[in-house]
Design a protein that fits this description.
Chain B: This is Putative extracellular solute-binding protein. Chain B: It is found in: Periplasm. Chain B: Keywords: Signal. Chain B: It comes from Octadecabacter antarcticus 307. The complex is a heterodimer of chains A (305) and B (416). With 305 residues, chain A is mostly helical. Chain A folds into two domains: 37 residues, no CATH class; 233 residues, MetI-like fold (Orthogonal Bundle), CATH 1.10.3720. Helices cover 74% and strands 1% of the residues of chain A. Chain A contains 17 helices and two strands. A two-stranded antiparallel ribbon of chain A has the order 1-2. Chain A is flat and about 75 Å long. Chain B has 416 residues and is α/β, with parallel strands linked by helices. In chain B, helix 1 packs across helix 13 and helix 8 packs across helix 10. The chains are: A mainly alpha (305), B alpha/beta (416). Chains A and B meet through helix 10 of A and helix 3, helix 4 and helix 17 of B.
């Protein structure tokens, strides 16, 4: 009798619980595959060709990668600059933490200061880049005037000197990125358990020890997000470079994403295959980092259960 | 099938054009133009309106896109839903679209008797033995200088390289720089190379280099750089030019900290806006370096083209004939419109002092030839690598060997 009633129900009805989520996911999966997964695969495919974006594609196998990894100077410069970005951009996290701790005081008028610190995050990156490039201008720029007072003269100005240009751009990028990390930490600090803080205080913890053993562990989720966002931000840094130096002087501030744009989409670029090869390399670098974070997140969740 | 269709359309168009000008044009004419700055935009809108008035049954759709954005947008525009007329540039800059079959062969249009007056730029619009567009304007390059400072120092416009160097020394001794330049966006350095190379080795050599037929490590190329280096070693150029755009380098000239600027004629408007009067500002042709070569001049030509997927070819060709006619070219290049030179020899030139001088120079003293500019004569990839090397050379001239080897590597790969 029981088996008969089970058979009477349709196949969908029987598997409803398992299937329904997938039914709802179908539009999302479809869009994601069409606009994210498929273009990634397409990039892989194009990277094996020589193609100007207009005519016929010519299959050249791994030749693009051979040229790219076999001593392309522009690629080497871009790669090392990417590493510089990666390492120095992470400074945004401690800086953001420091500012958020400072702003988390209960003092009259602190909201006003908070809003000032939010500013760089609100302003478009393009505008930040433009303002910083004026700030760095040789001779007339405020920065040059200030360092000139202590007797430092950077030939070509910060952005005109191949040794300093990348650092100048990273410093500009750190400004909004620090504000972003600060926002993350301010949110995190709201969630810090006051009872734990109170208990620690009774145990005699204060200052650095309180921060390290009580506050920071509770900020772990915020730190995690800050890391992911900052690393991805560093790897895809593009707007600042485009606005501030356009890859110059002499190509010394290129990073992989900018080089890819130059090769395939810019005014003089229509080497789609070569650009795609750069994109693939950048994709794997990012995948490495994101994979690591997903893995550590998975480990954390496993530990929590 | 497609070619038969195209041929018959071309034949039809030809018939239409040989018919009286009042031949009725109907349907839609879609024009995409990159003349996005205020004055050129007004010119383009005027052109569309005037052409529309001649052909009341024709519906003209004009779309104006940002000039810089168009350099990348054109690729999409020509492949998907192509318009009937587009703006672009002459010389090698056309080749990606010609090679991909996206520009229509306009050789038949160039056989029209009216086109004979455009002969000066026919070469720049010819690729693979056919013509692919028509010119509507061009402008001279040359040395714009502060006449008042020259007078104060008792200098004359230099004609030879020795005079140029001597002048420059006097200017430097007076505490000024000889030349301002902003090389942040690279192409300004390309202009210097065009002149240094064509004056040292001649037009033929310059074009051979552009076509990849000469090695960058050739002694003649080194001679060009050696001449250039004389100026660099003197300190003739402003410091830190790699940090400035060409506009950001203008104040040096306006303030009198630098006395001259090698530029295209479009810079005159900016200099006048900066407060320089025509009494303070003058123009001379880039001086002679090697007396054995005839002077060649940079005079980039802006052009109209018909995409091969155009729908209304008949109207498009009629529009191209319209913009190349002497009256229209006179009107659109006048001082209050584009302020440049008409290509049509029968058109008259604006009475602006600099346009007059430029016209005189290009008509009578450019016997070497007309160059289109570094980034239009050289293939795109070579141009971008090359200009980066030129900028580096201007800041670190000692890196020359390394730069030339890099360019030679690129040449071998690009022109294979």
């Amino acid at each position: 009798m029981a088996t008969a009633s089970a058979n009477n129900r349709s196949w969908y009805k029987r598997n409803e619980i398992a299937l329904t989520p997938w039914v709802f996911l179908i539009p999302g999966i479809f869009m994601f595959s069409l606009y994210v997964i498929y273009p990634i695969l397409q990039s892989f495919w194009i990277s094996f060709h020589e193609w100007d974006g207009l005519g016929e594609k010519t299959w050249i196998g791994l030749a693009n990668y051979e040229r790219l990894l076999g001593g392309d100077r522009k690629f080497e410069i871009s790669f090392w600059n990417n590493l510089r970005w990666l390492v120095l951009y992470l400074l945004a996290i401690p800086m953001g933490l420091f500012i958020s701790l400072f702003l988390n005081q209960k003092v009259f008028g602190i909201r006003f200061y908070k809003s000032l610190f939010f500013f760089p995050f609100v302003i478009s990156q393009v505008v930040v880049g433009l303002v910083f490039s004026w700030f760095y201008l040789p001779n007339d720029g405020l920065f040059d005037v200030l360092v000139g007072k202590v007797g430092i003269d950077i030939s070509g100005g910060i952005l005109g000197n191949p040794n300093t240009a990348t650092y100048g751009i990273i410093a500009a990028g750190l400004w909004p990125q620090t504000a972003y990390c600060m926002i993350l930490y301010l949110t995190g600090l709201n969630a810090v358990d006051p009872e734990q803080v109170e208990a620690a205080r009774l145990d005699g913890a204060k200052g650095a020890r309180m921060l390290w053993y009580v506050i920071l562990p509770q900020l772990k989720p915020a730190t995690f997000i800050a890391f992911v966002v900052t690393i991805i931000g560093a790897l895809r840094s593009f707007d600042f470079i485009a606005v501030m130096t356009n890859g110059g002087p002499f190509g010394s501030t290129r990073v992989l994403s900018f080089y890819m744009f130059e090769e395939s989409l810019s005014e003089f670029g229509f080497r789609m295959g070569y650009g795609a090869a750069i994109a693939v390399v950048l994709f794997f670098i990012m995948l490495g980092f994101i994979g690591y974070f997903l893995w550590s997140m998975y480990q954390d969740e496993k530990g929590a259960h | 099938m497609n070619s038969i269709y195209k041929a018959s359309v071309a034949a039809l168009a030809l018939c239409a054009m040989t018919a009286p000008a009042s031949a009725e044009l109907t349907g839609d004419l879609r024009i995409v133009s990159d003349m996005s700055n205020p004055a050129p935009r007004a010119v383009m809108e005027g052109l569309a309106a005037d052409f529309g008035a001649l052909h009341p049954d024709l519906n003209i759709e004009l779309e104006i896109v940002d000039r810089e954005a168009w350099k990348t947008q054109i690729r999409n525009s020509l492949t998907a839903n192509a318009p009937d007329v587009v703006n672009w540039y002459a010389a090698t800059r056309m080749s990606p679209f010609v090679d991909a079959g996206l520009f229509m062969d306009l050789s038949d249009l160039w056989e029209e008797p009216a086109m004979a007056d455009l002969a000066s730029t026919k070469g720049a619009l010819t690729l693979d033995g056919a013509q692919w567009g028509v010119p509507y304007t061009y402008y001279q390059w040359g040395v714009y200088y502060r006449k008042d400072i020259f007078e104060e120092l008792g200098l004359e416009e230099p004609v030879t390289w020795e005079q140029e160097l001597a002048n420059c020394q006097v200017i430097l001794d007076s505490g000024r720089k000889c030349y301002t330049i902003g090389s942040k966006f690279l192409w300004t350095a390309g202009g210097w190379f065009d002149y240094m190379n064509s004056r040292t080795n001649g037009y033929e050599f310059h074009i051979q280099l552009a076509n990849g037929e000469v090695e960058w490590t050739d002694d003649r190329v080194r001679a060009t750089f050696a001449n250039w280096r004389q100026l660099i070693d003197m300190g003739a150029f402003i410091d830190d030019h790699q940090a400035y755009s060409w506009q950001e380098a203008l104040p040096f000239m306006v303030d009198g900290e630098a006395t001259a600027y090698l530029m295209g004629n479009f810079a005159v408007a900016a200099m006048r806006d900066g407060g320089l009067t025509d009494d303070q500002l003058d123009f001379y042709q880039f001086p002679q370096i090697n007396p054995d070569v005839a002077p060649a001049e940079d005079a980039p030509t802006d052009t109209f083209h018909i995409p091969s997927a155009a729908q209304n070819v008949e109207a498009a060709k009629a529009f191209l004939l319209f913009v190349t006619s002497p009256d229209v070219q006179t009107a659109i290049n006048s001082g209050d419109a584009l302020g440049q030179l008409p290509v049509n020899a029968a058109a008259s030139v604006s009475d602006d002092k600099f346009i007059q001088e430029g016209f005189e120079m290009l008509s009578n003293n450019a016997s070497g030839g007309i160059m289109q500019f570094f980034d239009r004569d050289f293939p795109a990839e070579m141009a971008s690598i090359g200009m980066e090397g030129l900028q580096e050379f201007m800041v670190f001239p000692d890196n020359l060997d390394d730069i030339l080897e890099r360019l030679e590597d690129a040449r071998v790969r690009i022109y294979q």
